[in-house]
Amino acid sequence: MPKYYMISNRNITGTVLGGNRASKVTYWLSDGAGPLDTLASWGGKPVTQAEFKKQVLAAAQAFPDLPPAAQEQQKHVTLFVHGYNNAWQDAVARYQTISKSLFEGDEGLGLCIFFTWPSKGSPAAYLADRSEAEQSAADLAGVLSDLYDFLSAIAVKTAADPASACRAKTSMIAHSMGNYVLQKAAQVAWTRKNQPLLVSLLNQLLMVAADVDNDLFKSGESVDKSDGDALANLTYRVTALYSGLDQVLGLSAGLKHFGKRRLGRSGLDRNVSEPDNVWDIDCSPFFQVDHVGGFDAHGAYFDEPQTLELMRQLLRGVDRSVLTAGKGLLSSAAV
């Protein structure tokens, strides 16, 4: 059975994936026997969408069948979307780090799938990356739509036969500008599915150092069919992890010269009422322990033991009141 799973709209150039958008989405599997930053470790060529889906379903079916009371121990199928300034080699290395830290082993959360889009891998290419991110939204929307169709079919089967219930939760981790890709993709997928309100596409969404406007969810509990409205309606719980120490997002705000503050640097806009299933966590106290700041803070979420543990508990579905109470994980953090 494969160990690593990748979906990409990057072009293939020699033995690696490049920085340009391909004409179609490709699917890749790896047993993890070699370094992931060469396509030789991914079989040298993509597999069909049908084969990819077959392998993901087989992995999910191998998850334990747990009673409802043990829902926090239920395994996950989680999609990770990287941010800007990530050449494929760097992005796939981060994916492997996340998989090893959170999803692999007896105590792992399950299965992590990597979605990689054509970031140019250079800070100077910020605006080019933003353009690629917007164009890539349609490709990610296709992935989300396929996932929604599958979950809807499972829901119908489960209503008739509880034994048919899915053994995995579906979750997502988006980093930096990957949140912009997701924001636009969610809107396309939600519209394509006629703005469904009855089935959650994602159980947990972690928006890590999100390079999006911090008033994204300003519609609150009302339905205005905005990008934030789409994300909130397709997800059971949205958590934004942010830090004012993040100078990369300070640069992002400076490059735009318009719009709102960055969600990943300032947290949610306190002047608007966000939906009840959306909240944020200031991770600066975790970074200050190890004196992490500047550009390093932008990716430190995936390196710091405390933020990794926080992500684990969030993905498990631990209630925010438990996380913030007493001497809990967030007792030293501002939330």
Structural overview:
It is a single chain. This protein has 335 residues and is an alpha/beta fold. The chain has one domain (4-324). It has ten helices and eight strands. A hairpin with a 2-residue loop joins strand 1 (4-13) and strand 2. Helix 3 (126-160) packs across helix 4 (178-192) and helix 4 crosses helix 5.
Give the helix tally: 10
Oligomeric state of this protein: single chain
Could you name the ranges where pLDDT drops below 50 across 5 or more consecutive residues? none
Mean pLDDT: 86
> Biggest sheet, strands in spatial order?
2-1-4-3-5-6-7-8
Residues in β-strands, percent: 15-25%
Q: What sort of overall outline do the alpha carbons produce when their principal axes are compared?
A: globular
Tell me the radius of gyration. 19 Å
- Describe the sheet with the most strands: 8 strands, mixed
Find the structural class using helix and strand composition: alpha/beta
The overall strand count is 8
Give the terminus-to-terminus CA distance. Answer: 40 Å
User: What is the percent of helical residues?
Assistant: 25-40%
Count of structural domains: 1
The arrangement of helices and strands along the chain is EEHEHEHEHEHEHHEHHH
